[in-house]
């Protein structure tokens, strides 16, 4: 006991620590990083669940703050050994303006980098996204590619553009001298579509299915593969990267890693049915009812309605030209770079990930069970 207290000396900061991924990172750090002395959780909106974490051996400091405010970020970063920057505005539905998305994702990341440089924090882990690579606006498939697979990464939507810009800033900052004279070590993790306990879009699909009498209608051909990764494994990768970055700075600094695990390669909808099926929903084959051209038309109509209704209220359905294109373009990864560079092996098997997610859906408010 005395030994483990003595070993506790590190201060970590998790930005966006109350988000879907951020909460899992926070909990994983508390469970799996024995050297942790203090964990700072920085978010625009603090979750009430943080209170229950404050009774353990690690000092959990909740900081309500905004990454777009440089002084708030600097104050939170000062004295931290490692920053895990997961905060971001995840919006592909047109809820926020492009300016706001840039402000949070790009300027917010700049603020985090500058805070590290000014205060002498040496290790920065950035939560990037598969979207910095693709699918691109040309709809080219990325079939089980890795970090070195050539791909034309061209985007027009503000979300992937902002994530790509922020990732570039983080990688370029690797090696910059921080206060005290030592070099900053950075790297970026690129999750594919994350799923698991707390996933808002899974929640939306589930409730939509309940409203439609327990049915969801297939819109995407089963042959289109969409990469998915369990949130617990993404969190575990963050913890491992943060832990190994100091020892393996020369190898890992400035690198990008796709997040992967044993989740099967399936279409977005078939994958969701792995969890929603056991919770009582079924996927109706509707190719004859809704041909693809009609979906394209509906998506365009949704975009038009969003624009027309904006002065009155926010109309932001799941289906729009961008989400349809992402869901309808194969994008899957197959790589072992994280294992080679920092010994990553998924913590949760596919069976565990599936069981945990099903259990979460079943206990959701308004669930069929
Ligand atoms: N969900 C996915 O499938 C997915 C996939 C790849 C990458 N990512 C990335 O992972 C990260 C986390 O995503 P998530 O799905 O958990 O989203 P989320 O919206 O659940 O979490 C983001 C968190 O950031 C916080 N935040 C937003 N703006 C902020 C600001 N100005 N200042 C401080 N905090 C702010 C939010 O309050 C929220 O708690 C993001 O950077 C996202 O781009 C997500
Ligand atoms: C056409 C609809 C019929 O059912 C299905 C629409 C599904 C879309 C809403 C989602 C399909 C793919 C998702 C994205 C993907 O998983 C990866 C992402 C990267 C991440 O950084 C942010 C979230 C997202 C863009 C994710 C958003 C929702 C989808 C577009």
From TrEMBL:
GO molecular function terms listed in the Swiss-Prot or TrEMBL record: cholest-5-ene-3-beta,7-alpha-diol 3-beta-dehydrogenase activity
Record protein name field: 3 beta-hydroxysteroid dehydrogenase type 7
GO biological process, one term: steroid biosynthetic process
Similarity annotation: Belongs to the 3-beta-HSD family.
Keywords: Endoplasmic reticulum, Lipid metabolism, Membrane, NAD, Oxidoreductase, Steroidogenesis, Transmembrane, Transmembrane helix
Location of this chain's protein in the cell: Endoplasmic reticulum membrane
3-beta hydroxysteroid dehydrogenase/isomerase domain boundaries: 13-285
Superkingdom of origin organism: Eukaryota
EC class of the enzyme, as a word: oxidoreductase
Pathway participation: Steroid biosynthesis; Lipid metabolism; steroid biosynthesis
Function: The 3-beta-HSD enzymatic system plays a crucial role in the biosynthesis of all classes of hormonal steroids. HSD VII is active against four 7-alpha-hydroxylated sterols. Does not metabolize several different C(19/21) steroids as substrates. Involved in bile acid synthesis. Plays a key role in cell positioning and movement in lymphoid tissues by mediating degradation of 7-alpha,25-dihydroxycholesterol (7-alpha,25-OHC): 7-alpha,25-OHC acts as a ligand for the G protein-coupled receptor GPR183/EBI2, a chemotactic receptor for a number of lymphoid cells.
Keyword flag Cell inner membrane: no
GO cellular component: endoplasmic reticulum membrane
Reactions the enzyme catalyzes: (25R)-cholest-5-en-3beta,7alpha,26-triol + NAD(+) = (25R)-7alpha,26-dihydroxycholest-4-en-3-one + NADH + H(+); (24S)-7alpha-dihydroxycholesterol + NAD(+) = (24S)-7alpha,24-dihydroxycholest-4-en-3-one + NADH + H(+); 7alpha-hydroxycholesterol + NAD(+) = 7alpha-hydroxycholest-4-en-3-one + NADH + H(+); 7alpha,25-dihydroxycholesterol + NAD(+) = 7alpha,25-dihydroxy-4-cholesten-3-one + NADH + H(+)
Main location: endoplasmic reticulum
Membrane topology: Multi-pass membrane protein
């Amino acid at each position: 006991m005395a030994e483990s207290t003595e070993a506790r000396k590190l201060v970590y900061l998790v930005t966006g620590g109350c988000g879907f991924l951020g909460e899992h990172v926070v909990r994983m750090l508390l469970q799996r990083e024995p050297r942790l002395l203090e964990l700072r959780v920085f978010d625009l909106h603090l979750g009430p669940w943080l209170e229950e974490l404050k009774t353990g051996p690690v000092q959990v400091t909740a900081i309500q703050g905004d990454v777009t405010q440089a002084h708030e970020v600097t104050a939170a970063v000062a004295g931290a050994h490692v920053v895990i920057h997961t905060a971001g505005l995840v919006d592909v539905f047109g809820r926020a303006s492009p300016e706001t998305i840039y402000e949070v994702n790009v300027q917010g990341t700049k603020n985090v980098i500058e805070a590290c440089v000014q205060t002498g924090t040496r290790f920065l882990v950035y939560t990037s996204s598969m979207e910095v690579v693709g699918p691109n606006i040309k709809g080219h498939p990325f079939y089980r590619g890795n970090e070195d697979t050539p791909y034309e990464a061209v985007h027009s939507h503000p979300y992937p553009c902002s994530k790509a810009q922020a990732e570039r800033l983080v990688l370029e900052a690797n090696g910059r001298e921080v206060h005290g004279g030592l070099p900053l070590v950075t790297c970026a993790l690129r999750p594919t579509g994350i799923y698991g306990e707390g996933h808002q879009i899974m929640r939306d699909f589930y409730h939509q299915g309940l409203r439609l009498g327990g049915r969801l209608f297939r819109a995407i051909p089963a042959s289109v593969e969409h990469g998915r990764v369990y949130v617990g494994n993404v969190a575990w990768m963050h913890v491992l990267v943060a832990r190994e970055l100091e020892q393996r700075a020369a190898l890992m600094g400035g690198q990008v890693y796709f997040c992967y695990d044993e989740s099967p390669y399936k279409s977005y909808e078939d994958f969701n049915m792995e969890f929603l099926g056991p919770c009582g929903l079924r996927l109706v084959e509707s190719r004859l009812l809704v041909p693809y051209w009609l979906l394209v038309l509906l998506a365009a109509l949704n975009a038009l309605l969003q624009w027309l209704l904006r002065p009155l209220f926010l109309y932001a359905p799941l289906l729009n030209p961008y989400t349809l294109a992402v869901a309808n373009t194969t994008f899957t990864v197959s790589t072992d770079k994280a294992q080679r560079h920092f010994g990553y092996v998924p913590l949760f098997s596919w069976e565990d990930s599936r069981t945990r997610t099903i259990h979460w859906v079943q206990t959701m408010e308004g669930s069929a069970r």
